[in-house]
Amino acid sequence: MFTADAHCDTLSLIIASKGEPAVTPDRLRSGGVGLQVFALYAAKKDDSDQPYLKARAMIDNIGALGVPMLRGDLPEVPPDAPLGALSLEGGEILEGSLERLDELERELRLRMIALTWNYENEIGYPALSGSECGLKPFGLRLISAMDAAGILADVSHLNEAGFWDVIERALLPPIASHSNLKSLCDHPRNLTDRQAKAIIERGGFIGVNFYPKFLSITEKADIDDIVRHIDAIVQMGGIDCVGFGSDFDGIEYSPAGVNSPADFPMILDRLRKLGYAEGDIARVAGLNLWSLLKKAEASRGAYHL
Questions:
Q1: What's 174's DSSP letter?
Q2: What pLDDT, in 10s, does the model give residues 188-227?
Q3: What is the DSSP string of 50-101?
Q4: Which of 226, 276, 289, 293 is closest to 5 using CA atoms?
Q5: Is residue 305, in this structure, part of any structural domain at all?
Q6: The domain that contains 185 carries what CATH number?
Q7: Could you say which DSSP state residue 112 is in?
């Protein structure tokens, strides 16, 4: 079954030399993953950090992933062997420049941009900041430029005021590439039910994050906690808007028994045991993310600044 994952941090782990990645070509194949979105994560924690240069180091190491990278249109049908696509995690990589966006888009064919990570930047404010301010002027201009380029606005990490600016201003559907439900685990990084329903109503996507701290208030989790978040989103009407956003290689530890993309089929089997139809399981596995990426791709040039 075609499977897709909206977020992993394997590139940042590779350049930091922090050990063996969870996301490898063999594990992607074992898990049936046809599309893996690899994030360029380069947060600016203070003025000494240079997020653009960090991102360039990751770009230079894309070959180390061992996965063919899509820098043009997606195939007409979902692939049966692993392919990669690229996103930005933390819009500070753009350094407040739409020209930098154009440069990276031409080179990489970006699919989505997480507007913030855990620090304030030129675009807006993170969920962990507690700020009630919305997107900054550059953030509002960036949303329009992303619409024109067919790049999805990723609201994972973004504060709630910024989230509602995206809902109001973005023409493309919003994506929360790696976020869970606050009603099941009250963490600032998770979405309120109102936010999740807004993404569903806009035809967007929510990729369930596998980090135990976002899955359970006990900070310990297993496969059932992942399924609990998926099922809760489905019960909100999100059968066409939910899938995987594992955050592998970016999380400190994994749920018990779920350690890499090779374990995705076990999650799908749990959905079968809950009585999910095969067509709905296929949507959760990867077709929901695939459909949204294809929609964004088809819109390139349809919206103008």
A1: P
A2: 999 999 999 999 999 999 999 999 999 999 999 999 999 9
A3: -HHHHHHHHHHTGGGG-S-B--SPPPSS--SS-EEEEEEESGGGGTT-HHHH
A4: 289
A5: no
A6: 3.20.20.140
A7: E
How is residue 128 annotated by DSSP?
Answer: G
What is the SS3 assignment for 289?
helix
pTM recorded for the entire structure = 0.97
Domain-embedded: residue 287:
yes
Task: With respect to residue 217, please indicate whether it lies within any of the assigned structural domains.
Answer: yes
H-run or E-run covering 28: helix 25-30
At 140-189, the pLDDT tens digits run 999 999 999 999 999 999 999 999 999 999 999 999 999 999 999 999 99
Q: Are 177 and 207 in contact (CB under 8 A)?
A: yes
Q: List residues bridging with 203 in a β-sheet.
A: none
* Integer Cα distance of 60 and 39 in angstroms: 14
Q: Which two tokens stand for residue 139?
A: 């953030």
Cα torsion 169, 185, 225, 127: sign = positive
Phi, psi of 288 (to 5 degrees): -65, -50
Secondary structure of residue 18 in the 3-state scheme: coil
Strand partners, 242: 206
Q: What is the DSSP letter of 209?
A: -
